[in-house]
Fold this sequence. Notes:
With about 100 residues, this protein is an all-alpha fold. The chain has one domain (about 1-100). It has helices at about 1-30, 30-50, 60-65, 75-100. Helix 1 (about 1-30) runs parallel beside helix 4 and helix 2 packs antiparallel against helix 4. The longest helix is centred in the N-terminal third of the chain and has 27 residues, at about 1-30. The chain is globular, with a radius of gyration of 15 Å.
Amino acid sequence: MQNELNNQNHRQESSHLDHVKEQIDLLENASFKELNFKVKKLNFLCLNFDPFDFDTKEQEVKNILNEFKLEQYSNDPYLFTKVVLQLIDATENILNRRVN
């Protein structure tokens, strides 16, 4: 039983890391202006969406969730939050590298 749980956690961790890597690859190809807009969208998501209440969301939040393919984390609010924070961090790092 414990072994099954460990395997499931490993698959989920691997899957989310693949997703974050895929999104970062897309961000690397975005323009400076697009990156700024994406950071604003992710920040908007953080301020206007409760991952513990995934059923309640406004249209702009739905659009952002779709854009970053975040719907798949609806069953785990902690993983959802982790992925969003990783995307914000990666986007800001890309922006900072381009400024310097």
